Amino acid sequence: MFYDLIPHLINGVALGLLFALLALGFMLIIGVMEVINLAHGALFTLGAYGAVVMMAPDGGFPYEFMQPYYDLPAIPRYVIALIVGPLLAGVVGMGLEVCLRRTYGADPLYGLLLTFGAALVIEEVIRGIWGSSEYYLPTPKEISGGFIFGDLIYSTYRIYAAIFASVMIGMLWLFLNKTPYGAVIKAGAHDSEMVRALGYNLKVLRLLVFGFGAALAGVAGVIMAPIWGVRPVVGVDAVIPAFVVIVLGGVGSFWGAVSAGLMVGIVVALTAAFLTDWSLLSMYLLLLLVVTFRSRGLAGKASVLEA
Amino acid sequence: MSRVKQSRRGFLKTALGSGVAGGAALFGPWKHNRVYAAASDKPIKIGLTHDASGQFANSGQAEKRGTEMAIAEFNEKGGVLGRKIESVWMDTETNPQTGTRVAERMITRENVHFLAGAIQSGTANAISQVAQKYGCVYFNTNSSSPTESGKNCHRVKFVWDGSGENFSLAAARNAISTFGKNWFLVYNDYVWGQNTNDATKKVAAKFGANIMDEVAIPVGTRDWSSVLLKIQQAKPDVVAAAVGGDDFKVMRQQVSDMGLDRKPAWINNQQDWPDVFGLGADAAFGVFGTTWYHYLDLPGVSDFVKAYQERYPVTRISVPGNVTYNGYIAMRELLRVVEEVGSTDNMKIIKALEGRTMSAADRMQHFDAVIDPASHHVQQTIYLAEGNAAPKDDTDYFKILSWSDPDAIRASADDSCSLESYEATPSYDQG
Amino acid sequence: MDYPTKQTKAWVTPQIVVAIVLFGTMPLWIEAVGLYQYLGVEVIIWMIFALGYNLLLGYTGLPSFGHGAFFGIGAYAYGLAQFEVWPNLWFCLAAAVVVTAAFGAATALFLSHRRGIYFALMSIAFGQIFFFIASKWTDVTGGEDGLLDIQRLPVEFGAMSLSTRSNVELYYLCFALFCVLVILLWRLTNSPYGRVLRAIKQNEMRVSFIGYKVSVIKWSVFTLSTAIAGLAGGLFAMAQEGAYINIMSLQWSGTIVLMVLIGGGFVSFWGPVLGVILYFVARDVLGAYTEAWLLWFGLMFMLLVMFKPEGLAGMWRDLLGTLVTRKAEPKGNPAKVEG
């Protein structure tokens, strides 16, 4: 029994890191800007489609002039995809931030609603460009296929994705805590006067933070694409777990979100293995359980979003 | 003006009058008979209820190409009964609520003669209930839930796709001898998955399989790793999966990513062409069913493919598959029947369709098909296929393994169908 | 941004009369304007749902993103009461209301201590749980096939029996309930209870300092709005002659929020009504002309949130305000009007 459990625990940790990755962009935007970004899923999807165009000749743009590019080896193309996808999401995110400006200072519900509308629009635009059919994001063969794990086969890509997620989490933490930019961003979260006093333009700061958060959603899209596939509605699958992770972890807490991600991953993996028909529900039950006893999640701080 | 509108006005007078008087109002008979005095040369109008958004948007558009192609072909030959055929399409959004509203609108506002189109069973049911209420003939082109031609059948509804049970029967019979006795069942925990899984289990048990475990997977599952690990720990010979929609696409991706698509052997239910196309032959994993394939070695197939390509030169799906095929064949048959009975009267058409035999050559399949008069389900050839290791070209994903006679794979779910009587079905003719 | 502060003691206001006349005659003109009777039925049912929802969102400031689930539970409850217990209209509708309110009351126990985002997110979690159970429990709900063959039961008063089988007949049943509900809700929102709800929206803390048990009030208003959702759900089961799971999804729960806000639920009692009309007409008309109707609707929605967050009701009020100001000051200076 215990021997059987080990692969599932390891799988749960890998899954948990992916859940945390999904939530990073969401966390940044909600923590710093106090905007519940419902377009997170749509930006995630956009990142995935951006990557598909850079990876697959059949990515919706079968233009002749792209051919020399597609003749490049897979790894450089993958690296480019990993940049272009998030960039696309980031740029669209910045556009969204410009629209959002009009809601600052009002009930946070309006920010949420604006991004809800934006999610509809982005999804329809994606449908218009790429159609409704399924796309596939090829990955370099170095990170594809299965590998032997005891007497089981496990996905190489998942290990890569989990490591990638850990690196992203670490880098984001370093950025926020060990660089002057991070300090300004964190100050912006709680004290816009301070930011102004330090001589930064709050407008530009918010634009960049939102763009960065959107780009992080795009990164998650590129990483999850080979696991989930790419279709216009895939964003819904991203936004709901991101929500759960953030609430469970507590709004405004970096490590809260990461540990909530891991917790959700392990719980989902174990229920999926041993109580499969309840696996989707387990995430919500966990949330209810935790939030009933700790009303701001694992490590949440007070925030205007509660008003 | 149709009679229904007059009767509504009549009703209103009664209602308002009685409201004022405060007395009892006996509202007029609900069952309107929408019959015109005489047929005319006005166009025959067909309401297309294909999804363009929601989970089955892609398949919805594929069947739309099929139905519209059949309509266009008839119009090019001069229409039906000397009348032009018009189609009006509205997005049903893979959503029953929208299905109901669209069907109501089609019948009461657009005054369509017939309705056609469905992928998801809930939406199909919503449309068919409205159609039955008014008596409008409705073709369910592509929803393969066994309940469609079983307990949710209707006198006005005809079901053109094979059901999940047909596919299970076709696949399971052959798989035990080929792959082994130890079976592991996975299914989506909703009606289609549960029914299909029950059918698989029954056949598997009949042919002596040992069911190691059966796992219900919640709809909307995006992570299959735990289940895949569990399957590996159990070491079955065969995994029989009744998983549909986006869940299937996600499962397929993760199975192939772990390299589990060769061993154990996978038996999947139907794989719709729009769900596979564009993803390469790897996407077609395991053994699975289909009703038609564009490289079937039968006369007429290549002409049909060519006609499709001429009509839809810019579609991403460059060859027709089972979904488009079902849409096309269903619509063609409807228009033929209208021509044959010389009228758009619903009863005449229903009676002509019931028990109708369609020749194998005409349908580009291996066996004759027949519309079961008791369930309105088209009993047709089911093909078993697997991913093609030696494709002819970059659309040749499937290798057809075998085909089953409709008699051998008749779905028992069809027996639970009890159609409304002719008398209980309103007569309906938009003239 | 808030409702007019003036309270009224009237049971029937001019707006209510206008609404009753407008909706009471709708079956007479709906086809003339190019729509169809069933759309009217759907619109009036969603108006009932939206009015009840706005008690929560607009008046108390509690953004529930799981309300579609309660609408769905009402529909299932109506169907199951009809199949399993007693196929009588009043009984089945009462069952829809009571069962849904019971689920709502249980949910509210968890939600009534929450505010803002935590409230919103917990309501999503509950919505998902109900959706999930309905999809899994196919013996009861019919899963994605739906619970079918639900009857449009006749309205029975003693020996008298009125059919509801045609769309127009059903419409008038819904309309009658709509009228009753509008008047009751109007009174409720203008009662001391309604004032406390608004105060909670403004500042929960202060209300509790005054001595009100805020969580009890939040619990009661949540339960009340789910009861109304249950009524709407029961009527919707009649309209569709079936109950389907899709309505319980997060997408539809979001859609009701969208409808209420686009209409101006934050500033007007009538906001939800306007929003529902706009939503259904826009989708029917846009949907007939373009495949991407959601794109245009989404854009419209974004523009509204950006430039006129008070919604249609806010625009209407501005329009009236401009007219009134002009009347009062025929030579009034433009700057003043703008201000």
Automatic annotation (TrEMBL), chain A:
Belongs to the binding-protein-dependent transport system permease family. LivHM subfamily. GO terms for cellular component: plasma membrane. It comes from Hwanghaeella grinnelliae. This is Branched-chain amino acid ABC transporter permease. The keyword Membrane applies. Keywords: Amino-acid transport, Cell membrane, Membrane, Transmembrane, Transmembrane helix, Transport. The chain crosses the membrane at residues 6-28, 35-55, 75-96, 108-130, 157-176, 204-228, 234-255, 262-291. It holds the Pfam family BPD_transp_2. The keyword Transport applies. It is found in: Cell membrane. One of its GO terms (biological process) is amino acid transport. The lineage of its organism: Bacteria, Pseudomonadati, Pseudomonadota, Alphaproteobacteria, Rhodospirillales.
Automatic annotation (TrEMBL), chain B:
CDD domains: PBP1_ABC_transporter_LIVBP-like (cd06268). GO terms for biological process: amino acid transport. Residues 43-388 form the Leucine-binding protein domain. Keywords: Amino-acid transport, Signal, Transport. The keyword Signal applies. PROSITE patterns: TAT. Pfam families: Peripla_BP_6 (PF13458). The keyword Signal applies. Belongs to the leucine-binding protein family. This is ABC transporter substrate-binding protein. It comes from Hwanghaeella grinnelliae. The lineage of its organism: Bacteria, Pseudomonadati, Pseudomonadota, Alphaproteobacteria, Rhodospirillales.
Automatic annotation (TrEMBL), chain C:
Its main location: membrane. GO terms for molecular function: branched-chain amino acid transmembrane transporter activity. Keywords: Cell membrane, Membrane, Transmembrane, Transmembrane helix. It is a multi-pass membrane protein. It is found in: Cell membrane. CDD domains: TM_PBP1_LivM_like. This is Branched-chain amino acid ABC transporter permease. It comes from Hwanghaeella grinnelliae.
